[in-house]
């Protein structure tokens, strides 16, 4: 029988996975990091850690339950949130991926803004069951132990959740090579569209902008009541294009931007005097930009550089 892993070994092995689970549940980088730290502190404080059969399952259970507790306590805040709510973005570039295994995992495993918003449509328990089954590949008996329901009930919850959101998450590193190639091709195509979008907007080529956007495209801006932002989605390419052009015309001195990896896909970070001011991500459907997500809430830009 193999010796149980030490706390340090468990931390090195499962921190990225636990962060991925908590971030998908909450849509918050800071809260996800806090909960992962709390999970390891709880494991370290367990009276008889050697009796824990599976450190991974134990940690996933703590993280899942604490995420649900955090969502319950934040429900009122979410109901009173000013304007559209968007998840806190994870921004990375190639230099992040060399030495930090967590950043490398996030680059491979993190999901798009559009997919995170789909997850938000699920109840807390549905979200937990769906992620544990679909993303982490847990068996229903294991999920039942984590969420405190029967395995039959978990199976029903999973299928209901899957029907509700109707899509599969992006492929992870464990997936087959054909699926990975398809995902990589989609990522490259998204990058091309975003680069064309940036060039057209920066040069004032409104005709090209119109051609890059789906006619029924939607733009969501999250200021959280902290900064000026559209409190309702802007619907339709004919409204989005002049809105974006107007924003660029009013850009303050010291404005700059760069393309970055935002939640695993090509996006844009803008700066004013070197400080991050917005993070923009996109959803692509049928070779067109179907949705634009703009995070302006300064509380959600603390991890952006």
Note the beta-strand portion: 15-25%
**Could you tell me how far the N terminus lies from the C terminus, measured between alpha carbons in angstroms?**
46 Å
Radius of gyration: 20 Å
Largest sheet: 7 strands, mixed
Morphology: elongated
Helices, by number, come to 12
- Report the mean per-residue pLDDT as an integer: 86
CATH C-level class of the domain at 177-300 is Alpha Beta
Low-confidence stretches: 170-176
InterPro entries: ECF_Sigma-70_Domain, NTF2-like_dom_sf, RNA_pol_sigma-70_dom, RNA_pol_sigma-70_ECF, RNA_pol_sigma70_r2, RNA_pol_sigma70_r4_t2, RNA_pol_sigma_r2, RNA_pol_sigma_r3/r4-like
Domain RNA polymerase sigma-70 region: 10-76
Protein name: RNA polymerase sigma-70 factor
Pfam families: Sigma70_r2, Sigma70_r4_2
Report on the structure:
The structure is a single chain. A seven-stranded mixed β-sheet has the order 1-4-5-6-7-2-3. Residues 170-176 have low confidence and may be disordered. It starts with 6 loop residues before the first helix and ends in a 10-residue tail after the last strand. The protein has 305 residues and is of the alpha+beta class. Among the domains are: 1-80, Rna Polymerase Sigma Factor, Chain: A (Orthogonal Bundle); 177-300, Nuclear Transport Factor 2, Chain: A. The protein is elongated. The chain has helices at residues 7-26, 29-45, 55-73, 75-79, 101-109, 113-120, 124-135, 140-147, 151-165, 177-203, 206-212, 237-249, and strands at residues 91-92, 213-222, 234-235, 255-262, 265-272, 275-285, 288-295. InterPro entries: ECF_Sigma-70_Domain, NTF2-like_dom_sf, RNA_pol_sigma-70_dom, RNA_pol_sigma-70_ECF, RNA_pol_sigma70_r2, RNA_pol_sigma70_r4_t2, RNA_pol_sigma_r2, RNA_pol_sigma_r3/r4-like. This is RNA polymerase sigma-70 factor. GO terms for molecular function: DNA binding; sigma factor activity.
